[in-house]
From TrEMBL:
Record family assignment: Belongs to the GTP-binding elongation factor family. LepA subfamily. Belongs to the TRAFAC class translation factor GTPase superfamily. Classic translation factor GTPase family. LepA subfamily.
Gene3D superfamilies attached to this UniProt entry: 3.30.70.240, Elongation factor 4, C-terminal domain, Elongation Factor G (Translational Gtpase), domain 3, P-loop containing nucleotide triphosphate hydrolases, Translation factors
Cellular component terms per the entry's GO annotation: mitochondrial inner membrane; mitochondrial matrix
Name by which UniProt lists this protein: Translation factor GUF1 homolog, mitochondrial
Domain Tr-type G: 4-189
GO molecular function, one term: mitochondrial ribosome binding
Cross-referenced InterPro entries: EF-4, EFG_III/V, EFG_V-like, EFTu-like_2, G_TR_CS, LepA_C_sf, LepA_CTD, LepA_IV
Enzyme class at the top of the EC tree: hydrolase
Topological relation to the membrane, as annotated: Peripheral membrane protein
Amino acid sequence: YPSDNIRNFSIIAHVDHGKSTLADRLLELTGTIRKGHGQPQYLDKLQVERERGITVKAQTATMFHRHKFLGSDTDFLLNLIDTPGHVDFSYEVSRSLAACQGALLVVDAAQGVQAQTVANFYLAFESNLAIIPVINKIDQPTADPDRVKAQLKSMFDLDPSDALLTSAKTGQGLEQVLPAVIERIPPPPGKSTSPLRMLLLDSYYDEYKGVICHVAVVDGALHKGDKISSAATGQSYEVSDVGILHPELVPTGILLTGQVGFMVSGMRSTKEARVGDTLHHARTVIQPLPGFKPAKHMVFSGLYPADGSDFEALNHAIERLTCNDASVSVTKESSTALGLGFRCGFLGLLHMDVFHQRLEQEHGAHVISTVPTVPYIFEYSDGSKVEVQNPAALPSNPKNRLTACWEPTVIATIIIPSEYVGSVITLCAERRGEQLEYSFIDSQRAFMKYRMPLREIVVDFYNELKSITSGYASFDYEDSEYQSSDLVKLDILLNGQPVDAMATIVHKSKAPRVGRELVEKLKKFIDRQMFEIIIQAAIGTKVIARETLSAMRKNVLAKCYGGDITRKKKLLEKQKEGKKRMKRVGSVDIPQEAFHELLKVS
Ligand code: GDP
Ligand code: MG
């Protein structure tokens, strides 16, 4: 396939507008996968993706399609790159777009343009991609394609007559999609006569084959047996296998200019496969391709084994999982309350949740996570500045040593039906947001931009936004600058002892309410024990909230004695089971739920 007969494109959309379903239909249409293979959202391979109905990892598939082009039947090779829709994974989106020359911008015919449609449109637009608007789900009774066309025109200046109308469900209009891809998206621009340059798009570890890289060959060609080097590390490798993703790995022995496919080259770990790196033939000198923006960690949280002895097992599980999710940062840390563990940086809260779920589901690990925090910057009186990723690292009486603090902010885009404007403005004000823009997309939908402290959105903002708008709000954000802020460290004390893993950093104005809520939550989730437990929230030495959990009375225990032996055994077993998910802090047993509940207080 000469590169004139290759098209590399991506599908971008707001979550749930039908990208994955459309991708399935295109794969079926081209015979790449069988119809009714019984596995919808074929490219969503991970269990979490199927359960949550979201795409986490961008996947690539190569399809073949014959089309009448410039008067004669021509065979085309089409590389489709599916992208995640959720805000946390926009890093994956920009990665996928780097290998494309065009994108299908899918918009739900009933819901119209949503926040991630806007964000994804701009990502594609800034990468100079040809954009084909696809108005999907036209089979729905509430579909209103004309309204969506008007939105596309007013917001993105896209010509309404360019829009394709489809239903990925009924198949209506799908026959126009691939012809539009071939005719409207330019072929990849690389030179087949230039030395090899290829972009490393993604990598993962396969037990049998080792590290498998997804690559886009920009110039030249890659053959099995070639010696290649990494522009980033200078390391050299011998290519032992190359091929296309069809969508399974199909060895072809060669990848030509403009093709996207896989490569195996004896890398020992995915750490050597730096996403965004340029690979070239050993001993040729090339200009590296522009890389990607590195993943930016927005949320940090401590991960500890739910059972102290499992540290090695957790270590192993995290190592294995980060092989397939290089966007997580991991450093070892220890806590007086929880023992040995890890501090992990995530792209957002959903990313953090997904990482936990994958640790448990795919690697059988049991973890306790600490209250998530964003990276703050603190300045000390000696003029030094530090980035704080763990509240416990701040001294408890900070005011005498700290001279200033800054917190990261984001620019949030919110799109809502007009009737919810009032409640959304109230919510954003509570979250210390500053309104930057407020306009209307059409007669029914409002568009707002806010600057907000990142901290205020990572903790449950999206859920709350959805609940006050009956699920109609859409939301996206991009990171912005740091702003100076009045922050304090809030400690939680059990019987007078600070629990380092429960410390948080909060805005001074919110400390009393957050402190109150935290101690109330803890009182609810900690079981009564043989002694009284005093739960306190404090700033420095000043206690701002307090609850007392009275001791268990003896006759409660007495009930367990005597009676049916099997029942007693069951109780004991249950207790043992429960213990696994307990953490003993000082002399107090804290169930895992208590830690989880703390995550939700903001
Ligand atoms: P993604 O999040 O953009 O990948 O969206 P999915 O492809 O997972 O689709 C979200 C939901 O919309 C799924 O339940 C699909 O079955 C459904 N869906 C997708 N396309 C259509 C369509 O054309 N019509 C209707 N009625 N439903 C669709
Ligand atoms: Mg999807």
